[in-house]
Predict the 3D structure of the following.
Amino acid sequence: MTLNEMSEEYLRNVAVLERQVCELRERLDSLTPSEQYQAKRRICTLEQMISEGRATAHYLAHYYERRVPVEQTTKRRRGRPRGSRTHTDLRRRYPKGVIPSYGTRTHSSGVSGLRAVLSGRYDAK
């Protein structure tokens, strides 16, 4: 079985699932509230399966097509990732004693410790 044949098979299965969703939606008004709840949950599950089936079919159909040259996909970045902070950045941002791990205070570190320091609960000794 080739990838295109597998892709077509996925699309046939998606069509079957879509028919099931249509049938459930048509019967929805004639059901009791508890049955409606179960039918809506089933519809959500089927719609997710439809979406995944379409994505897989597209992936299989276009598997051998490369849009980006190999050189661009293996390019490495230098330095630390954007958005990551180091201890040096924190030391520059806050004065000594405000961050518990760099100051002289012995209370708990972390967000709650920093909030305690900033709120003035711990005075400098």
